[in-house]
Automatic annotation (TrEMBL):
Family of the protein in this entry: Belongs to the glycosyl hydrolase 47 family.
Keyword list, A-Z: Endoplasmic reticulum, Glycoprotein, Glycosidase, Hydrolase
Enzyme class: hydrolase
Domain of life, source organism: Eukaryota
Principal location class: endoplasmic reticulum
Entry protein name: alpha-1,2-Mannosidase
Localization annotation: Endoplasmic reticulum
SUPFAM superfamilies: Seven-hairpin glycosidases (SSF48225)
EC number of this enzyme: 3.2.1.-
A single GO BP: carbohydrate metabolic process
Gene Ontology molecular function terms on file: calcium ion binding; mannosyl-oligosaccharide 1,2-alpha-mannosidase activity
Any Gene Ontology CC annotation: endoplasmic reticulum quality control compartment
Amino acid sequence: METTTTTTNRWVQLLLLVLVISAGNNKNAILVRKVLADSVTLEEAKLLRDEVREMFYHAFDGYMENAFPLDELKPLSCEGVDTLGGYALTLIDSLDMLALLGDKEQFTFSVEWIGKNLRFDINKTVSVFETSIRVLGGLLSAHLIASDYTTGMRIPSYENQLLHLAEDLARRMLPAFDTPTGIPFGSVNLLHGVDEHESKITSTAGGGTLTLEFGVLSHLTNDPSKFAAFYGRTLYDSFSLPVD
């Protein structure tokens, strides 16, 4: 039986391998590869690479076969369930990993399916935090990958569908930022906005971490009046509020 230390070291090695896969050929990649080289042999690295790939496809294929297009797969019953908004959450979550693994066929299918079938004009109340980091972030990163020649995953027929979806989703979340502090409510209805009985309990992480997604969207749409103004105020007010 593996010891706790051995198990921990193995997870560290797997994490380093994922970082190598995602880092590309920049200076960070060279550093990560050096750390990995000091930890495992080339043969061990190949085995770890294959293990990462196998682990991902075990989960992804299970979702596609048993749960798609629902949000997630219930692992014990192998049934699909809508846990966030009913918009194929796991598929969106998996787009960047498909690209990292070089699976252009599945990446292309997923991007095209999302572009044709996903809509956010739905009467669903969703978590602002989870929707931002997983759905908005997933759409934006996949948009950048699908539209860039240098990624090797560019889709010739792609016409910014994911960016348009991301912009629509973000606009539907903006009512959550209409608060005295600028820190958003925890939940928002994508069709009707914030419910009058919505809890006022929130957190700095629930507001501060969203600056990445809304900042990228502001840059890509060249529309700071709609997005940058909100996340800028949120970030500023998060650091300006008194702490008990």
